[in-house]
Structures
1.
Amino acid sequence: MTMMTCSFWAVALVALVALAPVAIRADCPGTPNLRPIYSSDPVLVKSIENASLYHVGTGENGTTLRVLHLYGSPYAMGYAQGQLLADDIKTMVAAFFEYLDDTIAPYINWLPQDVQKIILEDGPAAALQFEVDLTMPYISQYFLDEIRGLADGCNCGIDYKTVLQVHLFPELIKASCSMFGAWGPAIANVSGTVNQLRALDWGLDNPLVNYSLVAVYHPEEGLGHPFASVTFNGFIGSITSYGGLVGMSEKVWLSYNESASRAGVPFHFLMRDAAQFDRTIDDTLNRIYNSKRTCSVHLGVGSSLDKQFRAVEYSHEEVLVYDDKNYPSYLPAHPLFDGLVFINKHVQPSSDTCMGSLMTKYYGSLDAETTIRNVLGNTASGDMHAAFYDYGNNVIHVSVAGLPVANDGNGTVIDGPMAPAHARPWFRLDMEKLFAQTQAQ
Ligand SMILES: *[C@@H]1O[C@H](CO)[C@@H](O)[C@H](O)[C@H]1NC(C)=O
Ligand SMILES: *[C@@H]1O[C@H](CO)[C@@H](O)[C@H](O)[C@H]1NC(C)=O
Ligand SMILES: *[C@@H]1O[C@H](CO)[C@@H](O)[C@H](O)[C@H]1NC(C)=O
Ligand SMILES: *[C@@H]1O[C@H](CO)[C@@H](O)[C@H](O)[C@H]1NC(C)=O
Ligand SMILES: *[C@@H]1O[C@H](CO)[C@@H](O)[C@H](O)[C@H]1NC(C)=O
Ligand SMILES: *[C@@H]1O[C@H](CO)[C@@H](O)[C@H](O)[C@H]1NC(C)=O
């Protein structure tokens, strides 16, 4: 199992600051991704009460993206997903526990002492149950209702307690990823929007890799607004969330070594709440300040109304908020730019120059296509999934890991049973349409 590594960047509308040019070095691990970006409308595959499953893409070599629309009360949405995807949920949960048992050993040193002890004595499921007990008082009832619905709807021998345990996995094993937020002078369109990247590196040996989907929630009256989560069947938290107004990126914060608390809100539930309920960056920062936080992660918060992005160092004890002016800059790895905040996939502060050199090279044109082709392709970040939020157009681009595509010179060479998301075809989703979509008959 790989620790999750993630990157993010944000671009902002501010006056351009003159910067010493940074040499572009050919020290990136990947090559540009020139594979197709599918933009056709999702095609209905199956519909039951409260849920409809769609596919986007040609299906060739597994290049299909699943889009699941959910409607109604939290329990009804959970129940419908459980029922519609019962077979996939059943195989995912079984593969997940097998994987934890087989692979947790080398990673155990990263975990808090109390959790290590439980794993050694009673196994990983017991450690997850320990996390469940500590976080349960802080989990909103609507999440628990949805989880109960999922177990009931699946009706596949996986009980509520087991589904809950699966949901504490991100608290135990965090991802190392990349992100950015880019606005104003950092993107092609200075007239007012923000673009945001979220690349999830969680390892292609993680069984979740075979169960990706985009869930589009249409909550009942009083429970926020429609939002999307790039997630896995049977997993209702969100580590990649977009609500049209606010969207979130995430990355493990490994260099933080002060106290963590296991008791509090799992961060993926907080990330989902931000997309579902928040309207501005301040809403999400207030949510972060006022929540009982657990472990340390970097979060990326983008907002269409603010047309800005903030990187947040989030931990049990403190919250540090960074914009394009105060993000720690050091050359050559991390230049500072007006309207751009980025974090590469390595432990921060990172001396790796790949992402910084790409930000320098493509500064001013950090749109979806440039990011997909030239940024992520080259950084080779986003193995499990990656998403690009274009708030101005209310469009997201998504890629998920899957079966290998041909090594045709159009992307990073793939030499395993699975191809990483950053090297595969991408999918363009018109969220304006998807958020407005009513339940299929
Ligand atoms: C979905 O679930 C709710 C219960 O929350 C129910 O009232 C509604 O009729 C269901 N069906 C659809 C299509 O939303
Ligand atoms: C994902 O599915 C493929 C094809 O069935 C399989 O070869 C691979 O081992 C699976 N990956 C994981 C991590 O289970
Ligand atoms: C935190 O880091 C400091 C400096 O690197 C080290 O001395 C200390 O032992 C670390 N604390 C923990 C709890 O790992
Ligand atoms: C520029 O931004 C505006 C406002 O967000 C949007 O309507 C327009 O489509 C954008 N243009 C491009 C080329 O993305
Ligand atoms: C699918 O895989 C086959 C065999 O590797 C290859 O010839 C073909 O070009 C691939 N198609 C796409 C769309 O990647
Ligand atoms: C690379 O992609 C382009 C455009 O999608 C396609 O025309 C071309 O055939 C691909 N190259 C190879 C070697 O398949």
2.
Amino acid sequence: METPTLFICLYIICLSVFGLSTAADTLSSGQSMKDGDKLVSTGQSFELGFFSPGNSKNRNFFWVANRDKPLTDSHGFLTFSHDGDLVLVNQSKSVVWSSNLSRVVKNPVAQLLDTGNLVLRENSSLNSDDYRWQGFDHPSDTLLPGMKLGWDVKIGFERCLTSWKSKDDPSPGDYTFRLNINGLPRFELFGIQYNGSSMASNPVIKPLFFYGENQMYLLYEVSKSEFIIRLLTNHTGWLQLYVASTRSNAWNIMYSIPNDKCDAYGACGANGICRINRDPICDCLKGFVPKSPEQWDLLNWTGGCTRRIPINCTKEEGFLKLANVKIPDLLEFWLNNNMSLEECEAECLKNCSCTAYANSDVRGVSGCLLWFGSLLDVKEYKEDNYGQALYIRLPKSELDFVHNSAKKKRMVIAILMSAIAALFLSATVYCHQIQNRIIKSKGSKIKEEDVDLPLFDLATIVNAMNGFSEDSLIGAGGFGPVYKGNLFTGQEVAVKRLSRDSRQGLEEFENETILIAKLQHRILVGLLGCCMERDERILVYEYMQNKSLDYFIFDSEKCLLLDWEKRFDITIGIARGLLYLHHDSRLQVIHRDLKASNILLDGSLSPRISDFGLARIFAGDEKEVKTRRIIGTSGYMSPKYAFDGKFSVKSDIFSFGMLLLEIVSGKRNRGFCHPSHQHSLLGHAWLLWSANRATEVIDGCLYDLVEPQVQRCIHIGLLCVQKFANDRPAMSSIVAMLGNESASLPRPKQPGFIMERSSMDSSAISKHEELHSINAVSMTTLDGR
Ligand SMILES: *[C@@H]1O[C@H](CO)[C@@H](O)[C@H](O)[C@H]1NC(C)=O
Ligand SMILES: *[C@@H]1O[C@H](CO)[C@@H](O)[C@H](O)[C@H]1NC(C)=O
Ligand SMILES: *[C@@H]1O[C@H](CO)[C@@H](O)[C@H](O)[C@H]1NC(C)=O
Ligand SMILES: *[C@@H]1O[C@H](CO)[C@@H](O)[C@H](O)[C@H]1NC(C)=O
Ligand SMILES: *[C@@H]1O[C@H](CO)[C@@H](O)[C@H](O)[C@H]1NC(C)=O
Ligand SMILES: *[C@@H]1O[C@H](CO)[C@@H](O)[C@H](O)[C@H]1NC(C)=O
Ligand SMILES: *[C@@H]1O[C@H](CO)[C@@H](O)[C@H](O)[C@H]1NC(C)=O
Ligand SMILES: *[C@@H]1O[C@H](CO)[C@@H](O)[C@H](O)[C@H]1NC(C)=O
Ligand SMILES: *[C@@H]1O[C@H](CO)[C@@H](O)[C@H](O)[C@H]1NC(C)=O
Ligand SMILES: *[C@@H]1O[C@H](CO)[C@@H](O)[C@H](O)[C@H]1NC(C)=O
Ligand SMILES: *[C@@H]1O[C@H](CO)[C@@H](O)[C@H](O)[C@H]1NC(C)=O
Ligand SMILES: CC(=O)N[C@H]1CO[C@H](CO)[C@@H](O)[C@@H]1O
């Protein structure tokens, strides 16, 4: 039998579970605390007490005082020594742990604050910030908001996180998360090979970095008071950011680090460079070749790269500038903070074993950092403002150009940004990166505004989705299955998961992420966050209770649930949504896949446009774009798009018209058949309208119809599906036409895609086009949408 070991520790209290506690929050001189006693902070958030690791499964201990000196029985107690030190003594009155004050405190009072900080003060300076000692200066494995991780440079005092040894053993384990200020300040998570990225800002947390003469540290704040967070170095060597809502108290992992393949230390071996957005992610630095090419081809990067042409200290050598990188590990380096970049270059050239140099600037003083030997753990950032420039020594013959950027005066702030931010890049930022990449590549003039897309941890999503079980599957979106689940906050969400091995899907995923993150409108389905862990690409949406429009209008029973008034509201809603996309949003966006199944309905049956996987952003001056891959849904595609891949806002108008006719008729355009002719729904509507019998198109389900309004809708629908894009009205006119019953409507011309095979009315469509249109439709059917 093991004797229970006791530790003194701090842990969070779940108020909803434990109820109100009457324990005091202070311990004064003369008092003591034994096993079973506790201190509870006034706001009832934190509790200080004794615990035995084996018996406390569901608690999260934020701080443990006597980590490596457990009490061996329950007779120890916490009290004050005559010097005013807070001490933990065992049965035989030996001090097991002490606050180890440097000065005597006459009248000490220990108080557990609502931040989780245990502080020691003079009774006379109670309620002041004049702490003689504080638990926050001695973190265990957890960083709470307000705690500093880093250094008091002057006195050489460090605060770092050290993991527990194992689940039941709080003694210091193998993994330490710390700020290394030797050379350049950088964060280190020892044990597993990781240096570099850490947390970035997101809607829940806000990290603050302070790099001063006397102090250098990381501290973070919670931006939303309804959340509690903690950063944990777990005993298997990961950093985990936990979030709990104050209501539910269940902890969820928001993300863990390392979180991408490039985070792994030296992922690409010596002299390799890791680029997370490339496939494969590893490459040799310029001028280098794989050491073992066969292994390299098998995606085994461990061997790294070696110089194609060795450097031999001749004058024929120069430097290649590599921008936006995380600089190599400082295995063998030399630092001088008093040098300019030019001097730095000269210094590197002078020494035959110098392989690269960089500006060491972190605090705005120019400086020089030289590397000798291999360059390990270089990683490229996609975003311009991250990372640093690295200058790699190469023979002239290898150089495309030699940079001479030393004369460029760099802004102190940019340098600060790059050095610090490079360390703190996370997948949240990765979302931004894709965004930037694509938007920039379009060359549009869109101003990048920070869109904070919360990043969800894969474990959280898997948990919320019940392990992506069949039961939680609710449908299929453009690029993969859609699941329903509940987040820890209790919120219902729909989660869209990119099917594996779908490259096309990846592009759609990126497009959708970028677009939805940018677009905020109550008509568009809301994106709550994303997850890009390992190979997973997941989008998290608000859940829409009432499925999608097609679920109702095409069903002979459910159609009764959507009366005309509702359908008309939905139509106007969609029209306004499209107006926003086409004209009102900061970007001009073409949806390209508008159809009944992409119109979701919320709890009050209001429409929400979804599935932006195919959407395109248009730069201001672009009118029409041609695409090689014709994708979309047959039956909703405009002829011009289906025939030759040209699309513009008018392609969406065509789809809208189609949708409008479907809403009115309750029939699908695709697969429509009529006993007496072979026209599509479009052709059918057109024929009836031409014969002044438009009302015959109307859905039999619509018992409450307002005939003139329905007729107007058919008319507007036909205007939208006219064959020539120029004839189709713009979204703004459509909204006006729908909203104003006295607005006059032009007479529609022949629609595109009548698809008749009878001789009737065929004069307007040439044989050639007819053939084309059939081809186009069957071709896109192959797309399987
Ligand atoms: C502080 O000292 C005063 C006077 O000695 C005493 O009454 C009071 O209880 C002390 N406060 C605490 C929190 O110990
Ligand atoms: C108390 O601690 C001292 C020193 O660590 C040790 O020698 C002694 O055996 C302990 N007493 C008990 C009862 O654990
Ligand atoms: C207590 O602090 C002093 C300096 O203030 C230090 O030298 C000593 O090692 C500390 N003792 C313990 C047990 O931490
Ligand atoms: C990077 O991590 C490795 C392995 O943990 C460690 O040896 C090295 O010192 C770290 N380097 C930097 C620059 O943090
Ligand atoms: C440590 O964190 C990682 C990443 O979140 C997780 O996979 C692992 O299971 C954790 N280890 C333990 C013992 O909880
Ligand atoms: C990877 O390549 C290295 C040499 O570059 C070799 O020693 C190692 O065995 C390879 N690993 C695997 C799994 O093939
Ligand atoms: C850096 O330069 C300043 C002014 O030129 C000088 O006072 C200082 O001693 C130098 N520091 C080092 C470490 O060389
Ligand atoms: C080059 O730099 C290394 C490391 O600082 C040093 O040991 C060596 O003496 C230098 N060689 C020359 C020729 O300056
Ligand atoms: C040094 O390398 C250059 C090519 O980079 C070559 O032309 C030259 O001959 C070499 N010199 C010596 C002394 O090896
Ligand atoms: C994604 O967006 C880009 C740029 O807007 C576009 O070129 C590309 O065709 C889109 N991809 C898909 C699958 O829609
Ligand atoms: C409705 O349309 C008529 C005719 O075009 C126009 O005179 C009137 O101002 C419009 N009403 C509104 C509210 O836009
Ligand atoms: C017609 C229909 O199914 N309406 C439902 C929409 O969603 C709300 C909220 O879940 C339900 O109460 C309605 O019955």
